[in-house]
Amino acid sequence: MTSPAASAPTFADLTTMGVGGPAARMVSPATEQDLVDQTLIVWASGDEWLLLGGGSNTIVADEGFDGTVIRVLTRGVDVVSASSPASPSPSDHPDRLVLRVQAGEPWDELVAYTVAQGWSGIEALSGIPGSTGASPVQNIGAYGQELGNSLAAIDFLDYDSGERRRMEAGELELGYRTSALKQGLRGLVIAVELNLHDTQSEASVLGGALSRPVSYPQLATALGVQLGDRVPLAQLRGAVLALRAGKGMVLDPNDADTRSAGSFFTNPIVSLAFSRTLPDAVPRWPLGEQELPDRVIPLDEYAGVGPIPGERSVPLVKLSAAWLIEHSGISRGFRLPGSRAAISSKHTLALTNTGGATADEIAQLARLVEARVQSEFGVILQPEPVLVGLDA
Ligand SMILES: Cc1cc2nc3c(=O)[nH]c(=O)nc-3n(C[C@H](O)[C@H](O)[C@H](O)COP(=O)(O)OP(=O)(O)OC[C@H]3O[C@@H](n4cnc5c(N)ncnc54)[C@H](O)[C@@H]3O)c2cc1C
Question: What is the whole-number distance in angstroms between the Cα of residue 162 and the centre of ligand 1?
């Protein structure tokens, strides 16, 4: 184990938000076996521990973390010949391709690779920072795709039992920006298995490898196609990257707006009954059965029509957090006097470090946004990133 680093690494260096104090200890395994071995050693030591991939969804307090950071640096992508047991047989889906990806593989490099190979399934998830191992934690999603659409299984090291096991996607309780891993299942994602489509066979007929059907209106508009159309994979990736860059949602050292954790708040999910008490202008979308999260915000308490603790029979709707923030009087670029934390100048949902901000400054801004939205609309925003030692 690489024990106490000579000069302790700080979370300001290890995370995309660029805030946070030192990590007391850190190990950085770069092979699958070393990752498993070192993780088991850290767990056996009784020390506090924290898994870290790209640090793009983690914000740590200025005091730092008095435990061991396990920084996952494993790399590798393998084509698995057999289809996943959870999936229909390959003969039902002759274009099915199963990839096994090491946890430390940078997510966007993986997407770029699959697009270049003509494999569809995760192309709309282009430009999301971070590691593949963290992708199931909050079931990453964007532009009409979610990891859950393609995830077959994970190779998992369970903290409670110390055992290594395969967990099918169906066991992971994937929902909108959530999973069992985010809701209390503790352990290490060693590798991720993805079901993709090898579009090469149709490419010769259609003149290029095509994406999955476009299902996000803004993306369809950018591409000049109809919802449900398929476009060349590289074209879809290019359009997503351009849309994301316009919102400061791709990492770019030349764009201070990208010094963030992406969207800081999830879109609130409320009951249909509660949503009817909100102004008509609030953008809202019915939540499909498959999208139901485990954690439902019991906002009906505020509306006085009774609690809705995760009842699947209660129709739910997703609200636009960005709209709620903007209409509670907080605009792009907003910052408190003297603070170096600001709302992104491109996207109200992102909190950014304009340079030299502290974690406290980020948390203070987050609390202000939450208080404004709650007092204006009675909606409680939930932070999306994993907060360590911080109250936001
Ligand atoms: C500019 C920007 C844009 C973003 N856009 C999006 C977006 O469009 N959609 C979206 O869903 N997210 C988005 N995000 C959030 C983030 O990129 C994703 O959540 C990503 O999956 C985090 O990966 P990471 O490796 O950086 O995670 P980290 O921040 O390192 O870790 C996040 C959590 O996962 C845990 N973890 C990390 N690795 C493992 C592992 N191997 N096993 C078990 N647990 C692990 C950590 O302990 C922590 O709890 C964005 C972030 C930024 C900065």
Answer: 24
Domain boundaries along the sequence of the chain: 11-71, 77-246, 256-388
Phi, psi of 266 (to 5 degrees): -80, 160
Please tell me which residue, 96 or 300, carries the higher pLDDT value.
96
Does CATH number 3.40.50.740 belong to domain 256-388? Answer: no
- Distance (angstroms) between ligand 1 centre and the Cα of 188 equals 14
Burial class (CB within 10 angstroms; exposed 0-12, middle 13-18, buried 19+) of 286: exposed
CATH class for the region spanning 77-246: alpha beta
Contact partners, residue 348, CB within 8 Å, separation at least 6? 322, 325, 326, 330, 331, 332
262 lines ligand 1 (CB under 6 A): yes
Whether the CB-CB separation of 276 and 252 falls below 8 Å is answered with: no
Q: Does the fold of domain 77-246 match that of domain 11-71?
A: no
Closest atom, ligand 1, to C-alpha of 138: 19
With beta carbons less than 8 A apart as the criterion, state whether 381 and 369 touch.
yes
pTM given for the model: 0.91
What is the percent of the chain with per-residue pLDDT over 70, rounded to a whole number? 86
Q: Could you tell me if the CB of 134 is within 6 A of ligand 1?
A: yes
In testing the pocket of ligand 1, which one of 28, 42, 65, 128 has its CB within 8 Å of the most ligand atoms?
Answer: 128
Minimum-distance ligand 1 atom for the alpha carbon of 51: 47
What DSSP letter does each residue of 21-89 carry, written as one string? -BEEEEE---SHHHHHHHHHHHHHHT--EEEESSSSSEEE-TT-EEEEEEE-----EEEESSPPTTSPP
Query: Residues 287-306: what's their mean pLDDT?
Result: 41
Q: Which fold has domain 11-71?
A: 3.30.43
Q: For ligand 1, say whether the CB of 104 is within 6 Å of any of its atoms.
A: no
Nearest CA to 107 among 55, 58, 69?
55
Q: Residue 54: CB within 6 Å of ligand 1?
A: yes
Q: Which token pair is 236?
A: 């879809």
Distance of alpha carbon 54 from alpha carbon 65, whole angstroms: 17
